[in-house]
Amino acid sequence: MTVPTLEIDIDPVWGEDVDWDALSTRTAGAAAAEAPELARANMLISVVFSDDDDVHALNREWRDKDKPTNVLSFPMLSREEVEALSDQPALPVMLGDIVLAKGVCAREAEEKSVALANHATHLLVHGLLHLAGYDHETGDADAEIMEALEVRILARLGIADPYGDRHQPV
Fold first, then answer.
1. Could you tell me the CA-to-CA distances from 99 to 53, 87, 118 in Å, in that order?
2. Predicted structure pTM score
3. Are strands 5-10 and 71-75 parallel, antiparallel or unpaired?
4. Residue 88 has pLDDT above 80, yes or no
5. Is 126 annotated as a binding residue?
6. Could you tell me which CATH number the domain at 5-156 has?
7. Where are the domains of the chain?
8. Is 136 annotated as a binding residue?
9. What GO biological process terms are annotated to this protein in UniProt (predicted)?
């Protein structure tokens, strides 16, 4: 299967208990299997496993929210531009950046009683779908589509539905 090319940067605060590179690659593969617009080898995605301070600064600068958050996505293309990309080999096309905050992710994982790796995987899936042009903030129908895709992608990875049983497959 064709998957996007990932450039991964891991801050040491994430530790070495999990192979974050391998987790990211598996996650991108599962996402590409469910969201074919991501199944392009010439697609380049930057994934940064960062700390709360860096994500806080990015969130303040780019979203006018003066607090850290779990994940930020910075798409470089619109949904229409992503769908129009060719499968033909070409120069890499930068789809965008995903940045995860270790402290926020760890606290949320603990609150949800899930492994940090599973929660980070969910947030990475969420970020990948945002880069592909999905947006849960544009309406309830769009949120349902995006969340259902997240659930299917996570199921491919053996991770339980993070939303509980409120979603039916679409």
1. 12, 26, 16
2. 0.90
3. unpaired
4. no
5. yes
6. 3.40.390.30
7. 5-156
8. yes
9. rRNA processing
